[in-house]
Amino acid sequence: MVLTFKFSSFVDVVVSVSVSNLEKVFPPNVYALRDVSVEIRDGEFLVVLGPSGSGKTTFIRCVAGLEAPTRGRILFGDRPVVDVERGVNVPPAKRNVGMVFQNWALYPHMKVFDNIAFPLKIRKLPRHEIEKRVKEVAEALEIGHLLDRYPRQLSGGQQQRVAIARALVKAPQVLLMDEPFSNLDARLRVSAREFVKSLQRRLGITTILVTHDQHDAYALADRIMIINNGAVQQIGATDEILNNPANVFVAQFFGDPPINLVDGVGRRDHVDLGDVKLPVPAPEGKLQVGVRPTDIYIADAPLSQGDIELPRGRIKLVEYLGFTPVAVVAWEQTELRALMYSKLKEGDLARVFLRREGVKLFRDGVRVG
Ligand SMILES: Nc1ncnc2c1ncn2[C@@H]1O[C@H](COP(=O)(O)OP(=O)(O)O)[C@@H](O)[C@H]1O
Ligand SMILES: [Mg+2]
């Protein structure tokens, strides 16, 4: 039986996605995924963030059924779509996922209508049903007036909407997107993110988007999974990961402006950076010390009680990050980036304050304080 397609009724079909101990080894021994586990809730927007080659595409292809993992399980709701031990690997067409590929993969010789209709034609739906669904999804994505064009006659943003429409037209339970914004210029990317976010909210569809760009994660994610070298580094909401990075990799990879990271020595009641001492409790011995530029600032007086004053430092240069001025403040050896809440200029000596909870301590790359 063919269910009547109603764009507004997606909410009824959302499912959770549960991934356990997923491993993918490409022969002879490329570990693209190592023991990846993550639970994606009904209607949640998960962004998988990692550098190039970290396993993002492999991960999303395993969820789609385009790649067979070498170990692990994936459930949609309580339905196993992958269970390597039991020999379960449901083919992509039976998983009911919509996939937006990195290069969008539109068929250049087909008009927009036929591009969007393609997944329905494969399913051999009746012509009038196909027309109804394509029109409905195209209207919802505001490309209803473009159905007669070829992809080359569209802007990048419009092409992307066609790719999303094609992914959504069969009312999938799960929407998967692989770097969907990487072909768009910076300005279009902002509006495309807003569009994807509001669409996902409207449909309530469980969504996994993979990207190397942390700004995609800030804009879109309910939660973020950071991976490196095929292994999960941390899963959490944006502010959890910013405030509590699990390790040095996460601290450095996630956060804009990037975290200050310097070597220091723990002395129980302070961390010794050589010329500067940070009065925070610390385990003894060599440490890596991380302080986000948003946790250290130059001002004429402390902004909150309890902030720690450091020795005066010299403003080496001031740069703008968006509208926010950030100074490089220098002592004898140490240099740190700090927010500027003062009218001082380059070359001036400045009062520098530190938020107590802003100091993150690492040893051998792992968080210790
Ligand atoms: N078909 C393949 N055969 C062999 N190695 C592959 C294949 N696909 C991906 N890899 C390797 O797996 C790792 C992860 O790749 P990929 O998932 O594409 O990373 P990302 O999408 O994060 O850039 C890389 O080292 C890549 O070279
Ligand atoms: Mg990729």
Task: Tag the structure with descriptive keywords.
23% helix; binds magnesium ion; six-stranded antiparallel sheet; binds adenosine-5'-diphosphate; Rossmann fold; 369 residues; 36% strand; alpha+beta; disordered N terminus; 22 strands; elongated; single chain
Q: Briefly, what is this?
A:
With 369 residues, the chain is of the alpha+beta class. 23% of the residues lie in helices and 36% in strands. The chain has 8 helices and 22 strands.
Please provide a written account of the structure.
With 369 residues, the chain is of the alpha+beta class. It folds into 2 domains: 7-252, P-loop containing nucleotide triphosphate hydrolases (Rossmann fold, 3-Layer(aba) Sandwich), CATH 3.40.50.300; 257-367, no CATH class. It has helices at 56-64, 112-122, 127-140, 156-168, 186-203, 214-220, 238-243, 248-253; strands at residues 17-26, 30-40, 45-49, 71-76, 79-83, 88-89, 97-100, 174-178, 206-211, 223-228, 231-236, 260-268, 271-272, 277-278, 282-291, 296-298, 308-321, 324-330, 335-340, 349-354, 359-363, 366-367. Helix 2 (112-122) crosses helix 3 and helix 2 (112-122) runs parallel beside helix 4 (156-168). The radius of gyration is 25 Å and the shape is elongated. Adenosine-5'-diphosphate (ADP) binds next to strand 2 and helix 1.
